[in-house]
C-alpha cells in the first residue's frame, strides 16, 4: 500500500493556532493568579481577593 502523505509529520496549521491560543490563555490565567496570590494576606480576614475574583461575574469565562 502506497501512502503519499504522512499525517504524523506535523500538526495542521489550525490545530497549532488553537494550541498557541490556549497557551496564551493559560499564561494570562497564570499572571492573574500570581496577582491574586500577591494580594492575599494569609490571615483569617474574610475579605479575600481570590474568593472575590472567583465570585465575580466574569470569573466563569475560560
For this entry, give a set of tags.
62 residues, single chain, mainly alpha
Largest sheet: none
Total beta strand runs: 0
> Strand portion, in percent?
under 5%
Q: Helical stretch count?
A: 2
Distance between the termini: 45 Å
Structure overview:
By secondary structure, the protein is mostly helical. It has a domain at 25-40 and 47-56. Helix content is 53%, strand content 0%. The chain is built from 2 helices and no strands.
Briefly characterize the structure:
The chain is an all-alpha fold and 62 residues long. The chain has a domain at 25-40 and 47-56.
Question: What layout of secondary structure does this protein have?
Answer:
Elements: H1 13-39, H2 49-54
Amino acid at each position: 500500500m502506497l501512502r503519499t502523505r504522512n499525517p504524523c509529520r506535523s500538526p495542521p496549521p489550525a490545530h497549532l493556532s488553537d494550541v498557541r491560543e490556549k497557551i496564551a490563555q493559560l499564561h494570562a490565567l497564570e499572571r492573574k493568579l500570581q496577582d491574586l496570590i500577591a494580594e492575599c494576606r494569609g490571615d483569617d480576614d474574610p475579605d479575600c481577593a481570590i474568593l472575590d475574583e472567583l465570585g465575580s461575574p466574569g470569573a466563569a469565562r475560560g
